[in-house]
Amino acid sequence: MTRVFNFSAGPAMLPEPVLEKAREEMLDWNGTGMSVMEMSHRGKAFMSIAEAAERDLRTLMEIPDNYKVLFLQGGASAQFAMVPMNLLRGKKRVDYVNTGAWSKKAIEEARKYADVNVAASSAADGFNSVPAFETWQRSEDAAYLHYTPNETIGGVEFPWIPETGDVPLVADMSSTILSRPVDVSRFGLIYAGAQKNIGPAGLTIVIVREDLIGETLAGTPTMFDYKVHADNDSMYNTPPTYGWYLAGLVFQWLLGLGGLKAMAQINERKARKLYDAIDGSDFYANPVDPACRSWMNVPFTLANPDLDGEFLKEAAALGLTTLKGHRSVGGMRASIYNAMPEAGVSALVDFMADFEQRKG
């Protein structure tokens, strides 16, 4: 069997050591005689898995004690509704920053529950940058400010964390969580779908400050109440147990590498190598402001788009898969999350140089 270098934006690659460990434990976890997929979520065996996963995530991210860590379902898209349902807390107005496709989806959903003020937008330049902070038009009475630190489709990333004072800062970190250290204490709430840097699709992580939960909008479904999940250790209903287990293995893998500081160094090297290849060529181009380029999602175009199909076919033949750009922007996109080894980026860069030499 030959594994490919999978550049998918998500579901994405998982670390091979994690997959090997899961394979080893597939039929019998720790002498229980059963797979994790067969365990009761309330049994001692799975409870130990769940507790270890939360403990390791808290260690990795240095999560303060006054934050709850929730292992939920519904993806980041469910959080687009859960955030205003839980965080309005008697207020009616919220601030959102629009930097691309996922910001827009969050804004559209929030408008069902609140008066949304778009405090800043980079629509004018095609979502190829981050709005300068001094241009933001924030509300005086906002319940929170929401932003998307990394836009998976457009490849735009905030190189800084907004300073919001007493207004809770909310971040959709689906595509950047665990890619580098982050000061959790600067946020009121962080949420992330698992399928990029955490584990398989189906699990969602929410990290929320305790004082922000317990006052939901009237009519909020029980399953959308953070306090319900916090009070029940994320087991009010049957959680995505196998996804939780695999996430725990990813956390162990990261700790074994040296934590998020070590992971950040690897990710920065990978991104720099790919951007250097793009910038050093007249054949490839990236439209994003260099100051706001994503470490995780690297879109690029060919000088002659008629060659796109050939590029993708040849790349796939070499085991470089899922490079086609999102349909809304076209071109190519290489997602190089934590599990993408440096060897995969080097193989892509070598192919790009060879393709340019033959077709340029």
How would you explain this protein's 3D organization?
L-glutamate binds at residue 42. Pathway: Amino-acid biosynthesis; L-serine biosynthesis; L-serine from 3-phospho-D-glycerate: step 2/3; Cofactor biosynthesis; pyridoxine 5'-phosphate biosynthesis; pyridoxine 5'-phosphate from D-erythrose 4-phosphate: step 3/5. One of its GO terms (molecular function) is pyridoxal phosphate binding. This is Phosphoserine aminotransferase. It is a single chain. With 360 residues, the protein is α/β, with parallel strands linked by helices. It contains nine helices and 14 strands. Strands 2-10-9-8-5-3-4 form a seven-stranded mixed β-sheet.
Q: Which keywords apply here?
A:
single chain; 360 residues; alpha/beta; Aspartate Aminotransferase, domain 2; Aspartate Aminotransferase, domain 1; 2 domains; 7-stranded mixed sheet; 3-stranded antiparallel sheet; 9 helices; 34% helix; globular; EC 2.6.1.52; O-phospho-L-serine:2-oxoglutarate aminotransferase activity; Phosphoserine aminotransferase; pyridoxal phosphate binding; pyridoxal phosphate
CATH superfamily of the largest domain: Type I PLP-dependent aspartate aminotransferase-like (Major domain)
The largest sheet has its strands arranged as 2-10-9-8-5-3-4
By CATH, the topology of the largest domain is Aspartate Aminotransferase, domain 2
CATH architecture identity of the largest domain = 3-Layer(aba) Sandwich
Uncertain runs with pLDDT below 50, 5 residues or more?
none
Number of helices: 9
Q: Kindly state the number of beta strands.
A: 14
CATH class of the largest domain: Alpha Beta
Strand content: 15-25%
Q: Mind telling me the C-alpha Rg?
A: 21 Å
The percentage helix is 25-40%
Q: Which class do the helix and strand fractions yield?
A: alpha/beta
Look at the structure and give the mean pLDDT.
97
Shape: globular
Whole-number tally of structural domains: 2
Run of helices and strands: EHHEHEHEEEEEEEHHHEEHEEH
Oligomer: single chain
Largest sheet: 7 strands, mixed
Q: How far is the first residue's CA from the last residue's CA?
A: 34 Å
